[in-house]
Amino acid sequence: MKLYTTCTIVLFVAAVLCVMPVLAQDKYLGGSPQITAYIAGTNEFSPGEDATITVVIQNSGTADVLFLNQGTLPQADIPTTAKLLTVSLTSGGAPINITTGPQALGDLASPGITSVPFTAKITTDANMGSYTLPLEVQYSYLSNSLANQPASDEVNPEYSPVNVTIPLTVRIQPVVQVTVLDAEASGLAVGTEGYVNLTLKNTGYQDGTKATVQILQHGDSAIYPTDNSVWIGDFPRNGTVTCQYKVSVSDNAQQQTYPVDVEVTYTNSDGNVVTSAIDTVGIPVAGKITFAVVSPPAEVVQGANTVITITYQNTGAITARSAEARLTTYAPLSSDDSLAYLGDIPPGGTVTARYAISADTNAATRTYPLDTEVRYRDQLDNSQVSDTFTANVTVTQKPPTSPLVQAAEIVAAIAIIAAAGYYFFVMRKKR
Question: Membrane spanning segments where (predicted)?
């Protein structure tokens, strides 16, 4: 009895399945993606600005729906889906450099939304106004799958490519734009401090008030400011101003031009404190001040104290102020007067120093290299010392004494002895 019942149930279910239709599938007869785009956040930028332009992509496409009978195969895609979506933003002649290339966003169903950032650089000479940036959009979509499905067991989907350009609007707003017209270095050499004089112009489209001009180190440049801010007050459009700054040059710099950055902080027409885009300018740096001895080797006599002269030359590119030279002696030479004041020495200028040098009686007759250096002050009155260099001194033989001189020396010695004896005899007699 139980077996009969079970078989009956199985046969009944099978019969029902044979006559029961397959559930209908939702099919889309038509439709396509509807892609729009806009800039999220601000679309106003300033000349020289590093900008990020965030573009929002939206798909709002709709499609018709048809309920089909049993046996129809389901669709793999929906006609309103934008497949393999790629977007590319270009400048379109605007004063903007787009540095981000084409972006692949994958599939975007409807309704759907996504965003993509593009990095850009606004040119420093950009004029104020509105500009159009073309957004190139590429995708494909399922365009006619139902018409190409001849039987319930066949699917022949057809995809259509789409290329569309969507215009996006950006605005360049009026700002103060600083442009360096002239840059001069004063007393600037390797390892010293000096001045940088800048002539600046407001080439922007806005008048700045309560303005301050800053000079900044550019990256790892060898020039770094020690006094980097100058108050200039009003900085009107097309106005010019001259500023002076104290700067230092590192000891490991070379004789070349190094960059510095210049910017202006000001109050705009809306009362907001803003900072302009940076203008970079090159500052020439002279090589380290060096000196050389340009006189022939000085001569010192054996066993004598001799005043010698040494001529120094400034072989650098800037003036050495309040210079003084030092001479270092070694045995068999010695000196109690090793310093000589030289004063200001311009580039290429020469100054002669005098030293009193003694040579031992048994000093060998040859040329001795002595160490010498020059201490001076730079443009900002900082004390600087040159590298040590060489001054040559030659020891000469003591000339032989002539017979007449020898006789005179003997007579003088006898006279001294006689005078001493006479003085001794008289003093003794008085006692």
Answer: 404-425
